[in-house]
Amino acid sequence: MEALMLTTEAATPGAAVVRPTVWTSAEWSAYFRANAGNRLDVPREAGAGVTPEELAEIVDSLRAWQLGETSDGSRLLRTAEAHAARIGDPGFVDAIRLFIAEEQRHGEELGRFLDAAAVPRVRRDLGDSLFRVFRHFLMRMEVWATVVVMIEVHALLYYAAIRRATGSAVLRRICDQILRDEVPHIRFQCERLAIIHRGRGRVLGVLTAASQRVLFVGITMAVWVGHRRALRAGGFTFRRFWRNSWAQMGRAWRAMRPGAYRWPVRAGG
Q1: Which CATH number do you get for residue 192?
Q2: Going by C-beta distance under 8 Å and a sequence separation of 6 or more, which residues neighbour residue 263?
Q3: pLDDT digit string (tens) for 123-132?
Q4: Beta-bridge partners for 262
Q5: Which residues, in sequence order, are bridge partners of residue 111?
Q6: Is residue 179 a contact partner of residue 125, using CB atoms and an 8 Å limit?
Q7: Does a structural domain hold residue 128?
Q8: What are the start-end ranges of the E strands in the chain?
Q9: Most buried residue, 132, 164, 170, 243, by CB count within 10 Å?
């Protein structure tokens, strides 16, 4: 399989556009299985290795984010099953199941760090609770994938900030692993959206793009309000966070375009 990338544009202005081939669900399942066995070693021997000062800046945010990473994914799985049945691609369900398992591993790694730092895990968080209510309305794969891409885009910035905010070798390595996983996660969801959007008319495409931008503003503001202390500890002002969020999401939007890919005979399976 070709190397994963999110950016589908050529690096040199004027050069030919490099268009990756859309992966089949079987290829994505193979990737997730291989990645599950290719984890970075986390140096836990010395304990959490975080100072009280560092912890004070990030702990509330980290506990909330850890809770969000531990969802059982049951609603997403049901949505994926309905989508797979509709398009005749049963292998997509397996790919989604493996994607969920990888997200849950992130949550468990963060949880183990909190345990080592003697910080109790939270069972409820306002932001997480609101999303769990909101997800009751996410019964279409297109809406799920769109929301997941936006959250993953913010996760790239969030974990980069957490990594900068601490000298803990354990937490920095956990962030390294999560950041390494997130770009393929975004590519996975962007490909799915490109498949869904393929053949969509211009008017509907414009309406879809407009609604996505409104949604992205809301999610960006919610992430900043809920996690601004940790983001600031990692070097983000609101201006910098806003600018970087839109730059990263711009890459994701370009990766959602059907024209960004070479299409195999059957892209969905």
Answers
A1: 1.10.620.20
A2: 21, 22, 198
A3: 765 565 555 5
A4: 21
A5: none
A6: no
A7: yes
A8: none
A9: 170
